[in-house]
Amino acid sequence: MADGGRVLHHFKHFIFDAKNTILFVGFQAEGTTGRALVEGADKIKIDDRWYMVHATIKIINSFSAHADYEEILEWLSSFNQGIKKVFLTHGELEASESLQKKIEERFGWSVVIPKHLQSFDLD
């Protein structure tokens, strides 16, 4: 998502040069530097300093380390015991709500999309 780590060092040295291309492989979450770049940001802030974006920004969406909803449903169907509650804690809200509906319809399980800092008693 380009919000930390070694990639920021590379951005500092390469993002300002129009001869360079920065290639993202996979989804960039809303609110991240990676998302801002693929959506056309003209500058990014790293360590309290602004860097102009002159490099070409490209994205290949065909690579992902995440399962799609069909793969998640297939994985969930492998559980022999009934599930009391499913917590969806990763992904954008619209996609989470869609998955929530699919799980509830297919399995009849309770599905929760927690709000930030919300806590639950798991007894």
Strand content: 15-25%
* E-strand count: 6
Strands ordered across the widest β-sheet: 1-4
How widely separated are the two ends?
A: 35 Å
Estimated helix fraction: 25-40%
Instruction: Give the count of helical stretches.
Output: 4
Briefly summarize what is shown.
This protein has helices spanning about 5-15, 35-40, 70-75, 95-105, and strands at about 20-25, 45, 50, 55-60, 85, 110.
General description of the model:
The protein starts with 5 loop residues before the first helix and ends in an 11-residue tail after the last strand. Strand 2 and strand 3 form a beta hairpin. It is 31% helix and 20% strand. The strands form 3 sheets. A two-stranded parallel sheet has the order 1-4. A two-stranded antiparallel sheet has the order 2-3. The chain has 123 residues and is of the alpha/beta class.
Fold topology:
Blueprint: H1 6-14, E1 21-25, H2 33-38, E2 43-46, E3 49-52, E4 56-60, H3 69-76, E5 85-87, H4 93-107, E6 110-112
Parallel strand pairs: 1-4, 5-6
Antiparallel strand pairs: 2-3
List keywords for this structure.
31% helix; two-stranded antiparallel ribbon; alpha/beta; 2 domains; single chain; 4 helices; two-stranded parallel ribbon; 123 residues
